[in-house]
């Protein structure tokens, strides 16, 4: 993947050594992740796109673009200069950013789309064990708060993204090994990247 342009999401920095890559871009729109990981995020030396949900926690500079996520101008924002739609998942935000940056093909790797949790979608929860849902059990460490995923609304957002991309002659592929999302065309990771 060293030849590819990559976008890392949320707490991807926990996997830099494991995955042996550093992203060209980074996206985070989840307030809890922004607050919990603010020092790690500030230390990233790639271009960052961050939600404004944390007040003045992050400032615009030559690497950091703070984007308004409070009142999106469209369900899929092709121009992210003024705002962006979160769409219940950081992946959706990243797809809008990739579109704005001009990517014709996007390959999603490691999309979380199967979670163990108690309670309703979008409800705040406290992690009572090591995180069973992400590539690192420290992603949301024991005692951390996180918001339960909303897979139905995430899928609706993905369907919108797929349609916007396809209407523009672009494509989104899902190269997640063992992935559980059926919205995007599946491709074999090893045939694309190895």
From TrEMBL:
Protein name: 6-hydroxymethylpterin diphosphokinase MptE-like domain-containing protein
Source organism superkingdom: Bacteria
Ranges where the 6-hydroxymethylpterin diphosphokinase MptE-like domain occurs: 50-117
């Amino acid at each position: 993947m060293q030849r590819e342009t990559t976008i890392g999401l949320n707490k991807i920095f926990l996997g830099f050594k494991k995955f042996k890559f550093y992203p060209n871009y980074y996206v985070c729109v989840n307030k809890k992740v922004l607050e919990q990981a603010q020092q790690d995020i500030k230390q990233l030396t790639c271009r960052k796109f961050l939600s404004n949900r944390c007040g003045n926690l992050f400032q615009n500079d030559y690497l950091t673009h703070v984007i308004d996520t409070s009142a999106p101008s469209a369900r899929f924002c092709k121009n992210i200069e003024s705002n962006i739609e979160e769409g219940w998942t950081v992946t959706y935000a990243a797809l809008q950013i990739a579109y704005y940056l001009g990517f014709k093909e996007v390959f999603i790797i490691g999309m979380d789309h199967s979670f163990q949790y108690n309670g309703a979608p979008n409800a705040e929860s406290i992690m009572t064990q090591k995180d069973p849902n992400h590539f690192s059990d420290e992603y949301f460490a024991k005692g951390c708060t996180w918001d339960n995923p909303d897979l139905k609304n995430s899928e609706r957002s993905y369907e919108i993204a797929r349609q916007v991309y396809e209407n523009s002659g672009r494509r989104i592929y899902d190269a997640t090994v063992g992935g559980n999302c059926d919205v995007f065309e599946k491709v074999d990771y090893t045939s694309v990247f190895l």
